[in-house]
Amino acid sequence: MKTIIKYNNKTYEVDFSKPLDISIPLKGDVSNPNAWYIPAPKITPVKDGDFTGSIKAGASTNFNNIFFNPHAHGTHTECVGHITRELYNINDVLKQFFFIAELITISPEQRGNDMVITKKHLESKLKDTTTEALIIRTLPNTNTKLTKQYSHTNPPYLLEETAIFIRESGINHLLIDLPSVDKEKDDGELLAHKSFWDYNNNIRLDATITEFIFVPNSISDGSYILNLQIAPFVNDASPSKPILYKIANS
């Protein structure tokens, strides 16, 4: 059933019964995607003496511990606290969860040994000045992104000029299907993170970056309503579940 909503003085027709999930689920084994040189996540029953928290092992409930890193093990949303000495956390910073979003698909450009996303890539695609969130899908786009082991692979990344352009376009929420907006090994410069959050000037506390998404090819480029769901972690980043809803009248 389609619903008529009003947002920022505009009217949108949306079918909330047809969500498009662009998150990667977290699994407790080596098939889970991974980055940043750490082991796979683990989901294991609690063990305490003779007790094992598993119905198969005779317990009354399944009672698991989960060991993971939000930055390394799947879809996550982070705030500027990721790169600041001050302890900003995503649960305090992200207070609004629905946004007008634009999905674009980009084929990164070869620069030396790197594959990069340039300002020129975005200038030709990002034309809607009312967009609050930008979703970048990179090519090639295959299901291998659901299991890819990114450590030491030098994935594509955003140039500093690209992050500045995104910020100056009024985008507050950036989502990308890579483990980071920055180069894997950049000597800690973090140029794209710092430029997007305006780290050296007026820090944008309400801006977020979501990494490690996966946008299936069945979802077309265009405008959507984005519901950016996070777990209430008091941490710079939280596992997240971004959901898109097609705008019928876009």
From TrEMBL:
<dbReference type="Pfam" id="PF04199">
    <property type="entry name" value="Cyclase"/>
</dbReference>
<protein>
    <submittedName>
        <fullName>Cyclase family protein</fullName>
    </submittedName>
</protein>
<dbReference type="InterPro" id="IPR007325">
    <property type="entry name" value="KFase/CYL"/>
</dbReference>
<dbReference type="InterPro" id="IPR037175">
    <property type="entry name" value="KFase_sf"/>
</dbReference>
